[in-house]
Every structure is written in structure tokens, then in C-alpha cells.
Amino acid sequence: MRILIANDDGYLAPGLAALVRACRGLGEIDVVAPEQNASGTSNALTLNRPLSVFEAAGEAVRGFKVVNGTPSDCVHVALTGLLPQRPDLVLSGINNGANMGDDTLYSGTVAAAMEGYLFGIPAIAFSQVTKGWGEIDAAAVAARQIIDRVLAGGMPAGPWLLNVNIPNVADAPRLPRRVTRLGRRHASQAVIRQTSPRGEPIYWIGPAGDARDGGEGTDFHATAQGCISITPLQVDLTDHAALGRWSDLT
Ligand code: MN
Known about the structure:
- The chain has helices spanning 14-22, 71-82, 103-106, 108-118, 136-151, 219-224; strands at 2-6, 28-34, 53-55, 65-67, 89-95, 123-128, 161-166, 177-179, 184-185, 192-195, 201-204, 211-213, 228-233.
- The chain has 250 residues and is of the alpha/beta class.
- The strands form three sheets. Strands 3-4-2-1-5-6-7-13-8 form a nine-stranded mixed sheet.
- It is globular.
- The termini are far apart.
- Manganese (II) ion binds next to helix 4.
């Protein structure tokens, strides 16, 4: 089996190295990751300049290929020219912080996995619920267990896309797992306005909102209960229930 691993926090992120270590022995692993932290870049592709690829140096990242672009660029370039063979599985993460509910629309971690999915390859995005890399090795072991479980009966027919959120606890590999739907967040908090040293107004995007729909069955609920959340995702944004409501526009 060939596995492509990417992330959005950049090739030096501890979550990427931990996931790669945890996947040893699963098959041939290629790592293609962004040069810089590209969190929140969603499915962006870089179209206004060429992309460069270099091989990382240093023990923890030896052999990693680094792209000066977005998470989607990494997987796109990997699948369309960089890798000698098409991977059987695309993994992304482990992300520094949750990707639940509406986060999945903004997440570069989910987008890297989704790029594989869009090319017809099964894919899994992994995130830790809390930022800061606490218990990252336990999260990586939990991720490996999920991969092993998914593959236990052979590769399920694809493409499919799973979004996994893992609580930051030392016993993450022993946590119960829940298959969930996405919750919803409240709108983000207000932008933070400051004055630059040159006296001009500058703005920082505010923090994401808290859970608005964190009810039973959601990713928010599962992780709040101390469980690992696994959400199967699809890409079709069509509001199927609303097709009839707008039919008189034709
Ligand atoms: Mn990130």
C-alpha cells in the first residue's frame, strides 16, 4: 500500500511527524507538506506563481517533500506529477486544534484530505481537539488504530472522506469512538482592530464561535463527552431540500 501524508500546519509541525511515525509499517509513505503554516486556507490552489518543491533536512523530517504553497497544492502536485505512483490512501494532520462543524469549510487539514478524495482516493483528516500538541503521540497512536480498523477488512470501496477529532489525553488510544455528524458554530467573534506602528488601522480575524449545534450525534458532543469523533464527509454543497423552493426562478 502507498500512503500520502500532508498537513496544513507546515512540514515542521509535531503533528505531522507524529502521524508519520505512527504509520510506519503500513506501507510506502510519501510526505508532501507546506513550507509554512497554511491553517485556514481551505481548498485554495496557488495559480498566480509556480510552486517549488524541496526535500526537508533534519532527523524528524527526513525525506519529507516541502511545497511553498497550500495544503491542497501539496496533494494536487503530489497526485498529478510528483509521486511516481498513485497512493491508495491520503492522510492529513494531525492538526493543531479542532476541525469540527463549520471549521471543516475553512480547514486546510480537511482540504488536504479532500483533495485526495476529489481525485478518487480514500482520505482521512486528523485533528487534536485542543491546540498546543498536548499528548500528540497518544493522538497519533489513536489515529493509527483507526486506520488499522478501517483497513482491517481490506480497503473499503472509495472514494470516501473521514474527519477525525481526537481529545488531547494520554489514553487517547483507549477512548471510545463515535461516528458523528458535523455540528454548527456560532458566527466568529468580532474582528480585532488595532493601530499599526504607522498609525493605520489593522484587523485580526477573531476567534471561531462556540458550538451552536453541539447536540447529541455531533462532533462537538462526542468530543465533549471524551470520545474520538469520526465524521464521514461529502463535498456536494447542494441544498437538496431547497430545490423545490427555488423552482419558480426558472
Ligand atoms: Mn492547522
